[in-house]
Amino acid sequence: MACRFGIFPRRLVWALLVFCFGGTEAFSQLQVAPSAWPDRPVLRVHYDAGWGHFISIRGDASPLSWSQGVSAQWTPGNVWVWKGPRGMAGFSWKPLIDDLDWSTGGNYFLPGGTGVLNVYPFFGASQGSLHLVHNFWSPQLNNKRTLRIFLPASYFENPAKHYPVLYMHDGQNLFDPNTAAFGVEWEVDETLNREVGIGQVREVIVVGIDNTSGRLFEYSPWPDPFFGGGGGDLYLDFLEDTVKPYVDSTYRTLPLAKDTLSLGSSMGGLISFHAGWTRSGTFGAVACMSSSFWWDGGAYIHEVESFTGNRPPCIFYVDSGDDLLAESLAMRDALSSAGYQFGVDLHHWYEPGAGHNEAAWADRLHVPLRLLLPWP
Fold first, then answer.
1. SS3 labels along 282-327
2. How many CA atoms within 13 Å lie on the side-chain side of 6?
3. Where are the domains of the chain?
4. Running DSSP on this structure, what letter comes out for residue 342?
5. CA separation for the pair 40, 115 (Å, rounded)
6. Complete DSSP assignment for 191-244
7. For 323, which of 82, 260, 332, 356 could close a Cys bridge (C-beta 3.0–4.6 Å)?
């Protein structure tokens, strides 16, 4: 693998040719103009295969086959292009290196058999990496905490790729049993490695934000008569104005709302809902697992039930086990009454027998991931 990725990359060869011949004009015949082929399939594979190697395409519609690949054409920027004939129906396909090594994950699909599809594959093991940012300061809350950042498997293999970002609360519980409550973690890294590897979930950067001693204050959108709290908007200001700018400037992210998600459980589910309901310009999808919709006498459920304006453009996932089932169902029905459509921008899941704990949330984490981050 070191030979494939490390020897004389094509970008260096291209730079040398440009230097020697005085510009890119001499090689303009290699440039790809996808708009010139609007009525046929154009597959663009963004990947530096290394000098002496090539990308091939296999698929399930003639002239492609699963038994032998056809070579794609290298173009500047390490974009390998294959254009198919007119008249192809929709088809599944997959890139290979040297027509030997398959890309990791699921097949890609081009519906209708026409149009341009850009993909950013990787060919190594589906094994992401965890990076800790200690003492990350919040000017909004006047405290500091650790950020736990999971980078997907292809992050260092394919530097052309940018990623959606999933912001998760209670970061201590996500990756490491030694820091998790009661010694049980969510197994976020194991779940993502598996789901990406079998082609069920797209790659995503996960930002786990540790909680603090002020967890109840930070995760509650307004005060509860008994428990107090009410600092949720300050916490979301912290995410929106401090954490997200740091992440977007440090890592290769897709920064728009449609590629920015939030996920949490219990009070973390409540603040995730608040993020989607009030800040859909930043968070385009939220997953609310076993959420504390009971807060303040179920005030959030009542707010959604009585809502009459234009609904926030966010995708909501709401679930529970046998814990908080009534509240989960009530919020599901309130969102449906507000105009959200099941299977489009509203998803609900019930896990019979599941409790209110990290083990239960870890067991079904793949469900919201598959629904909100489906393989492309």
1. CCCEEEEECCCCCHHHHHHHHHHHCCCCCCCCCEEEEEECCCCHHH
2. 3
3. 2-119, 129-372
4. B
5. 6
6. HHHHHHHTTSB---EEEEE---TTHHHHH-SS-BTTTB---HHHHHHHIIIIIH
7. 356
**Alpha carbons 209 and 264: distance in angstroms, whole number:** 11
pLDDT tens readout for residues 14-41 = 333 333 333 322 222 223 344 455 689 9
Tokens matching residue 275: 């993020």
Q: If we measure between CA atoms, which residue out of 50, 135, 152 comes closest to residue 98?
A: 50
Query: Cβ(111)–Cβ(70) under 8 Å?
Result: no
Strands (E), 84-194: 91-97, 101-102, 108-110, 115-119, 129-138, 143-151, 165-168
pLDDT at 30: 27
The token pair at 121 is: 């594959």
Do residues 43 and 93 touch, judged by C-beta distance below 8 A?
A: yes
CA distance 152 to 197: 11
pLDDT digits (tens, 9 = 90+) for 205-221: 999 999 999 999 999 99
Pair of tokens at residue 346: 């509203």
Cα dihedral 332/271/219/243 (nearest 10): 170
Helix/strand/coil for 101? strand
Residue with tokens 């060919």: 123
What are the structure tokens assigned to 85, written together? Answer: 């004939």
Q: At CA 275, angle to CA 333 and CA 285, rounded to 5?
A: 70
Q: Are 300 and 335 in contact (CB under 8 A)?
A: no
Give a three-class secondary structure readout of 140-158: CCCEEEEEEEEECCCCCCC
Interval 94-128: pLDDT, tens: 999 999 999 999 999 999 888 999 999 999 999 99
Task: Give the class (CATH, top level) of 129-372.
Answer: alpha beta
What is the tens place of the pLDDT at every residue in 211-260? 999 999 999 999 999 999 999 999 999 999 999 999 999 999 999 999 99
Indicate the residue type of 336: S
Contact 95, 80 (CB under 8 A): yes
Residues 2-119, CATH architecture: Sandwich (2.60)
DSSP 43-79: EEEE----TT--EEEEESSTT--SSS-EEPEEETTTE
Residue 217 φ/ψ, nearest 5 degrees: -65, -45
Q: Which residues, listed in sequence order, are joined to residue 43 by a DSSP beta bridge?
A: 82, 117
